[in-house]
Amino acid sequence: MSCPKCLVVDDEPIILELSAQTLSSMNIDCVGAGSFAEACEYLKTQMFDLCLTDMHLPDGNGIDLVTLIQQEYSNTPVAMITAFGSVESAVQALKAGAFDFVTKPVDIKALRVLVSTALKLSEKHEDSFSSLVGESCAIQSLRVKIAKLARSQAPVYIRGESGVGKEVVARLIHTQGARASKSFVPVNCGAIPTELMESEFFGHKKGSFTGANTDKPGLFQTAQGGTLFLDEVADLPLHMQVKLLRVIQEKQMRPVGAAKEISVDVRILSATHRDLADLVKQGKFRQDLFYRINVIEINVPPLRERIEDIPLLVERILQKLTDNGGKTDLRLSSEAMTFLQSYHFPGNVRELENILERAMTLCEGNIIQLDDLQLPTIKDDIEMTEEDYGTWVNVSSTEAHAEGLDPLLEDVEKERIMKALEKTRGNKTHAAKLLGISFGALRYRLTKFNLRFNSD
Ligand SMILES: Nc1ncnc2c1ncn2[C@@H]1O[C@H](COP(=O)(O)OP(=O)(O)OP(=O)(O)O)[C@@H](O)[C@H]1O
What we know:
The chain is an alpha/beta fold. It has 3 domains: 5-123, 3-Layer(aba) Sandwich (Rossmann fold); 137-301, Rossmann fold, CATH 3.40.50.300; 305-448, Helicase, Ruva Protein, domain 3. The radius of gyration is 28 Å and the shape is elongated. The protein is 45% helix and 14% strand. The protein has helices at residues 13-25, 36-45, 62-72, 87-96, 108-123, 137-150, 166-175, 197-202, 219-222, 238-250, 276-281, 287-293, 310-323, 334-340, 348-362, 370-373, 386-389, 397-403, 406-423, 428-435, 439-448; strands spanning 5-9, 29-33, 50-54, 56-57, 60-61, 78-83, 100-104, 156-159, 184-188, 227-231, 252-253, 262-263, 267-272, 296-299, 331-332, 367-368. Adenosine-5'-triphosphate binds at residues 132-134, 160, 162-168, 231, 273, 313, 316, 349-350, 353.
């Protein structure tokens, strides 16, 4: 097998020399280019497994080279060599598509780690995305983004409502990338007591505080070489935000009670269901940390915006329930499926899982009926007065059957829907809001009850 080949672009001969020595000790061929133009010439005529480029080149800039390689030679991972402490240019490089950066003066150990990570990256085959179920456009474009982000080492901030699949996405970014053989360490930042946070994250030395009876590694050490997923990152107290920022920037940390700093090589992924930019505005989250963890942002859309994925998700969840000892050959009646596709799922996929688990227990036989779903019928709405809509009915359809209330409930529902439509002059969006149900749920009911409003 031939040696991997690396293109190093820098106008400082000492950097070219150092890189060549380090790379050849790793059995990697090194080709040096002193300028942007020279690098372009090499790229046109040779294939490279990796490119390392300086930020400042005599005839151009490293970011433009990153962009060019991303566009024309996308199989070649590229890393940026930046001046020490220049966070801005490192962030710029990662945003342009560089998979990582190394600071000057170049630390040989850091360079070795970076190069071996990059080479694993180009060897990596397409793994399956089977944990991310869905064929909607939203999920398909999410997969493309994940595949791209997996090739990078940039911090990624995953945004999305509760239960939408943010951790699924984080795991995929890890397992599809070069760090896959090392640990993925998820941590719920809101679940660690403030006084234990520092020792949880950075570890501690025996005797460093009362109760520290042994040396204990922190989450950063556990994730060494792998990925640390900071879930609910908005819950980090401000003093921890400062400490975390330092570690991310300097790639060094000191366990509680330790005399020496240790190097950390951990990719940071973070997520929250809250609006982090808004928390920054309110002074509850540090702008500098936000800037550092939010180098690349990815949004996981709510389930109600991809209802075409519901049948596939249902199939997967029912299969999982069966595999875990539940009923076999479980299916959903078509009425139940239609209803699920009109529900607004405030708790997203996790709520769908809970609904189906409960329904499996309730259903007789192996076909889940609409009643087994036990979804709320009409929600209470503060805008509705008792006089307008009668008392709030929150009886599940199952109970309604048992008591023989079904026709009665239907009448109440029909009456309320018609009143809401009258009140909103036939505007279904407003009527659904007034009734406290999703637009899809209202449409479903209009069809089910064969209701027509004058303006229909
Ligand atoms: N697209 C999907 N395909 C298959 N399962 C999914 C998908 N999205 C979410 N899930 C499942 O839904 C549940 C919730 O997902 P996950 O924990 O990733 O959500 P989250 O957004 O991180 O939630 P939280 O905001 O509460 O931390 C998990 O059991 C997960 O496996």
